[in-house]
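Entry for the shared binder. Reason: the reviewer on the internal report wants the predicted structure included alongside the sequence.
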Amino acid sequence: MNAVVRKSANPVWLILLLLVLGSNLILYRTEFGGHVLSGASGTVVIGSLIDLAIVAPLLFLAWRRSITLKGFLFGAATGLIAARFLIPDEWLGSYTPITYIGFAAEGAFILLELVLVVSLFVYLPKIIRTTGEDPKPLLFAFPAAVDSHIRSHPIIHAFCSEMLMFYYAFGSWKRKPRLTEDAFTLHRNTSHMAMQMMLIHAIIIETIGIHWWLHEKSLVLSIILLILNLYSVIYLIADMQAVRLTPSVFGGDHLYLSLGMSNRMEIRYSDIEEVVTEGEELSGKLTKDTAVFIARDFEAAHPDVLLRLKQPVSATLFMGIRRPYRAVAVRTDEKDAFIRRLKKELDDH
């Protein structure tokens, strides 16, 4: 069972979570807590274990508006591990073996994820072959091929995203964009590429200056910063290549919207309820449940089209994270042609 219960955002859950964690921290790490424990330590320790292993995970999941059995079990294991380090040995006493359940559970979770990662590389030849046979753009075909061979999991989505990043950064330079009559670009009439190049130059200059200064202060910190900046440059290069090589495409039953490595969406024509092409909705502030496919520009840019959806549709973001949206805002280089083609597809479906 892994059913997700969605609730409206409520900061009360976060406040309660902080109170639970804060009270336990005060209890075991202050003099006041020592006086409390001297009276009834056994009962208080049991209460703390319940707080950290049951109450805190439930409050966290309620705050995140995503209550799942797997999330609760993971949170309970994390809470038991936290209890092992938070509660001093003299107070934890005979309850210490209970905390080992948390370590065992976390180890099982890690082992399961390692098995999934290994299976990704085992099935990689089949995944590549399936990707090559799929007519969809590579950014959509590769994740779909992965999902067809391996059970969908956030860590698999993350690895899939990283593999695409390295491919676009280093292995895609001989490819040319497929600008067919079904394809529409989103970036050519904007300053998107120029802004990306500016970011890359800024990171390189910052890396040289800060790394040289920080190297004398802290070797470890300077190496960590160097690795993070190197990753950022590789990611930005991959993002530029993905934008250049993957225009938005009208498929047989789907509209494939793409704007770089961290923003893509596959929408069935039958899931589009309304197409808004004019009015205040396009010039006003977009809602949080609206996916935005608008290339960066030096000037403020507004969408040409707003698609209202009949039901939430997931978009793939950074590191393969998937988030549902109820509307989609799009700005294209060929507004009129895009709208005509979109309306034609909706009429046909």
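Summary line for the report: Confidence is low (pLDDT under 50) at residues 1-8.
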